[in-house]
Amino acid sequence: MMQLIKNLSEPKNLIVVCVLYTTIITIFFLVPFSSGIGSDLPIDKLVHIVLNGALIFLWLFYFYRKGTHQRLLSHSALLVLAVLYGIIIEISQALFTTTRMADVWDVVANIIGCVLGLMVFKFLKIKFSS
């Protein structure tokens, strides 16, 4: 298991993981969802927080492992990109789907998830760097 994690954390493999994850959650946020779970339920907001937290964490980890996290993108720039991604997803739900709708509280949950993902990354980076 540790060897698998080590192999996946190599930059050439990690970029595939990041792109695949981003693609999967994009599809997840845009496909019709007919299980009867409404967007008003707290579980929906928790899903947004977790998925967006993992999104920014994975991308930060990729740039960190690649060694370009300080030169190419700062943490705040990646945070802004992740927040914009969440806003674009919400706008896309309103414009391109009939069973999904944009929700300001989803955007708030996305932002919370992004900030938490950034904080977890920084915490783990400090913890494992020392």
Would you write up a description of this structure?
The chain is mostly helical and 130 residues long. The chain has helices at 2-8, 11-30, 42-66, 75-96, 104-129. It has five helices and no strands. Helix 2 (11-30) runs antiparallel to helix 3, helix 3 (42-66) crosses helix 4 and helix 4 (75-96) packs antiparallel against helix 5. The longest helix is centred in the last third of the chain and has 26 residues, at 104-129. The mean pLDDT is 84.
Please describe the topology of this protein.
Blueprint: H1 2-8, H2 11-30, H3 42-66, H4 75-96, H5 104-129
Helix pairs in contact: 2-3, 3-4, 3-5, 4-5
Distance between the termini: 23 Å
**Largest sheet at a glance?**
none
H/E element string?
HHHHH
How many β-strand runs? 0
- Could you tell me the mean pLDDT? 84
Radius of gyration: 16 Å
Give helix % range: over 70%
Number of helices: 5
Low-confidence spans: none
Shape: globular
Structural class: mainly alpha
Residues in β-strands, percent: under 5%
Summary of the model, kept short:
The protein has 130 residues and is mostly helical. It has 5 helices and no strands.
Q: Which features does this protein show?
A:
5 helices; 130 residues
